[in-house]
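#onboarding

Welcome to the new folks! Below is a worked example of what a typical request in this channel looks like: someone posts a single protein sequence, and someone else replies with the predicted structure as tokens. Don't worry about understanding the tokens yet, we'll cover that in week two.

Example request:
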Amino acid sequence: MNLVGTEQDLTVEKSVLGAVFIDPNVLDEISFLEDRDFLSKKHQQIFNVMKWLDKKDKPVDVVTVAELYVQHNKLGDVSISYLTDLEESCPTTANVVHHANIIRSKAIRRRGATIGQQITDLSRDDFETDEDYFSAVDSLITNLRPDEQGKMRSLAESRHDYFSHLLEVAEFVPTGFKHFDVWAKGLWKGWLFVSAGRPSVGKTAMLLQRVIGVAQSGPVLLWSQEMDEDQVKDRMISNVTGISYGKIKAKNLSVKEYGIIEAAYDQLEELPIFIEDSAGITIDEIRATARRYKRKYGKIAMIAVDYLQIMKIPQKKSETRAQAVGNVTTAAKQLAREMNCCFMMLSQMTRDSENHRKPQLSHLKESSSIEQDADVVEFLWHDPEDTVSSGKVVQQFIAKGRDIGINEFRLLFRGWKQQFMELVKE
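Example response:
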């Protein structure tokens, strides 16, 4: 940026800060402006002080701003005369929004130039995989966009959008489980759906059967962290063909069974199911991949992760494990909304759950964050008193259902072929 451009930028910044001194109420009008948008570090600091005073319902003027600098021994950073000059530099607040937009627009372009250089620098770094590189680039690009503040609208302003919404066909994603789909209308776009269960109740089998059902409606991205891609396919093939999972796993197949499997695979490969068997996946890597597939296919029906607690979850020194997990579930929920799809995530349960007959929300491992962010929480559990001769009865308990309520279903799990079917309640 040339010197003239810099002087003009600083003049506009002074005008905005001066307008705040004249009338602090203009902070509400320029709430979209961030401190990082100011070119001058001094102006960034002054703007931060102004926002802090306003948040605390304290007066915002030259005296109060200077007093804070005195309290923190920072008066050397800015003189009282400089603050006074800011106030005098702006004769009116009439153009403050226009000037604030200029500041933000200039800042976005400065950040773009900086990030361009950072992306160039990344090319010299040693990443384990290309996906790690893409994720790093995507993270930088995300930081370029301003922190958009939601804009309030009156009912009159949003009338047209609402009636257009009513005329659209409701898009629910069927799971292939008839009773659940009739009750919940399938999976809802924007959901974070958490599925938890006790050992040996078929959590992964349930997930894979849903993946097959949901893929009828659109692309499904599946991250498997404990099983490799072939093991995932073994289970899916067993589910579709009814051939024993044990026989497939042991590769003890007759010529006829091999032919059945080949025909089933031909059908499955027509479905937009994409599998990654990386261990320790991060939510940033999931986001980057999801965005790429959304651009390629126009939509995503479901993102699925097996399972939450073995993801690579960054934890800051000041954070607890539960808080770190909460950052991931919050990001997963945001991604579900951004991609307009369902994000289905398997979760562990606490050891204490074994001491109770029926699981509760508190039995989710790191439960507080998961329970808060999830739209739906499902538990799969086995009641020893509920038995049938044809397989294992698994109880499906929807313990939390935003917009749909809670419910219970009986499922028959035939583990030898990795297949669930719904039973009529007795």
